[in-house]
User: Fold this.
Amino acid sequence: LKFEGYPHVLKSQQFSRKWVEKVLFPLSDKISNLLKKKNRDKLRNLLKNKTMVSLFASESSRTRASHEIGFNLMGGKVAFTSASANISSAMGKGESFEDTVKLFDQYHCDLIVARNDSAEQMPIDSIARGIRTPIINAGDGAGKDKQHPTQALLDIYTIYKHLGKMDNLRIAVIGDLKNGRTVRSLCYLLAKWRIKHIYLVSPLKLKVSADIKSYLRRHNIKFSEHCDIRKIAPKVNVFYQTRTQTNLGSPKMSRSKTNKSKEFTIINKEVLNLCSKSKNSIIMHPLPCLEEITRNEVDKDPRSVYFESKTSVPSQLKCGLITRMAIMLLMLNPKKAKAILKS
Ligand code: NCD
Assistant:
């Protein structure tokens, strides 16, 4: 059940298509069912006596909450949580992120969930090499390899649930392709399927980095770069919009202003109208969403799945809780995970 023998969740490359389709997706479906009120009691013993340390050295709502609440729902205990570890843990005194993660390795916790946006601190996958406690990279901000692997896993689960497949899709990844860690993790993961085409749509200042392009080339995924979403909108199945990553070094700029020039990277009514309703398409966003989606025009559209789903299939937001619960269960109690899969 383990993903390619790794004890940790660090980057998209570590997962195989087979593991995702045969283990993660079906287990997530089961968890989704167990989350229904009448079944929720069955979750309570899955992580009994397990403890988690939740170490977020930078802003987060969804990622932190879905790990912590998901862990609690399965009967585990969040033993230490630091909303802003850079201030409220000894990191505020200047202790390194590496030492902070490492100390919990000696305190017998079962899982460390860690996020860090600072480029000065050691990347999470380097820190993980030296520790035995399983660690989840909940968003690394250091260096050009920054990733957010659980986001990519929940993203493809969302695509799969809403469109029923991954192969042959045309996917537009939009916005801050330069500094978005969700973008990198998603592109790396998508390359494991036979994606028909990836459209990389960004303002000129935020173009996709070279490593993502060479990765896609190596995996024979067709892609093209654009700065006007309207040009390709009629062909797209998945619109994956992203925010400008000002916290990761991107310049503050108004996207709505750039819409007047050759750059057009906002999703609004005009874009929705270009994309045929009969075609299978969805609008996604890892959130938080600022000005890059005109919410009063797009939220109510049946194709928008980021915040609320208009069908019985869970929203992208909810898929985050579901898949992260599945991942944590696989990491900490694979026996129970197996039993649930067979049930
Ligand atoms: C993303 C992140 O932190 O990288 N947020 C998240 O985890 N849902 C995307 C973002 O902040 O724009």
